[in-house]
Specification:
Number of strands: 0
Helix content: over 70%
Order of helices and strands: HHHHHHHHHHHHHHHH
Number of helices: 16
Radius of gyration: 20 Å
Structural class: mainly alpha
Strand content: under 5%
Number of domains: 1
């Protein structure tokens, strides 16, 4: 049973007061909206608070030394591997991404983490192995980590720090003069930081979830199998564009990938869809907008989206 099962029951309970039938398309869309809004909200609160509290014990200088003062690509590799062992979805990976930036970790290195964390994790690897075998699982992990490293290196070379919102660097400079705090002070600081950030981004998250709910509820079940078949040369591009507005983690998307493959979708196309859903999502875009200026946000989604498309076509060639 999923740890989010109570939220599913809560969504059912709320909808029981409406006249919408569980067999209606509208029911599925509304259930998706309630479930994801509550889940993302709770995840944001829990993860932001926990990371902020833990970060108060980790001097920014140590974090910078670990991920910065090395041959540049090593930091990207370490950040990508950190992403693999943190089982976060795209939205819940953002708070740690912000924390790394505020600690002074280079922008390109933090992007390597932001890409790999939602895309590749141990649960996804186990499920892929069980459903498709070790070759597919290993290839997916390798491609996800490689994409995170390459994209991070590209962003690092472009020197785009000026496209990060100023308050991030202000927080960083204030942390330099950190003094010893009591546990109560750390808890209070974590509480206020969490409250401010969640109140700032959550209204926009709900807008993103609402758009995802419309697609989730009203996109025909056989749409992808029909319009993204092996005979369509633009299939990978189509599934990536469809996957970006949706929201899920890798473990939740793998059963969908299996059903798509069973309906005749090429493995590369199905995995590209999975990558786009997990690594890029509309709620993530809305949260990141509070950290990244529009130009950098567009570059991030463009580079990662292009990388996923290329990966999908390569998978189709070799599998």
């Amino acid at each position: 049973m999923s740890i989010f099962y109570p939220i599913e029951k809560f969504a059912d309970f709320v909808l029981s007061f409406t006249s919408v039938s569980p067999n209606d398309v509208l029911y599925g869309a509304l259930h998706f909206f309630i479930y994801d809004s509550v889940k993302i909200g709770l995840l944001l609160i829990a993860i932001i608070f926990t990371i902020t509290f833990i970060r108060s014990y980790l001097p920014a200088q140590k974090i910078r030394r670990l991920l910065s003062n090395r041959f540049s690509i090593v930091g990207n590799i370490l950040a990508s591997l950190l992403g693999v062992i943190t089982p976060f979805c795209s939205c819940s990976a953002v708070p740690l991404f912000i924390g790394l930036l505020e600690a002074g970790v280079p922008l390109g290195v933090t992007f390597s983490y932001l890409i790999s964390a939602p895309m590749v994790n141990e649960i996804a690897v186990v499920l892929l192995f069980g459903m498709f075998g070790w070759k597919i699982a290993l290839l997916y992990v390798f491609s996800g980590v490689l994409l995170a490293i390459v994209a991070g290196v590209i962003f690092g070379k472009m020197k785009l720090e000026h496209l990060v919102e100023e308050y991030v660097w202000k927080f960083k400079s204030e942390e330099e003069d950190e003094v010893k705090q009591t546990i109560n002070n750390r808890l209070l600081t974590s509480y206020y930081y969490t409250k401010d950030l969640v109140l700032k981004v959550f209204p926009y998250v709900m807008i993103g979830v609402a758009l995802g709910a419309l697609i989730h509820g009203y996109l025909p079940n056989d749409f992808l199998a029909t319009y993204a078949s092996a005979s369509n040369p633009f299939a990978v591009i189509i599934v990536v564009l469809i996957g970006i507005p949706l929201y899920s983690n890798a473990a939740g998307t793998i059963p969908i990938v299996r059903s798509l493959v069973e309906k005749g979708l090429p493995m590369g196309t199905a995995l590209a869809f999975m990558m786009s859903v997990t690594a890029l999502s509309l709620p993530e875009m809305i949260i990141l907008r509070n950290v990244l200026k529009p130009k950098l946000l567009a570059l991030y989604f463009g580079v990662v989206g292009l990388g996923i498309i290329v990966t999908g076509y390569l998978f189709n060639l070799i599998l």
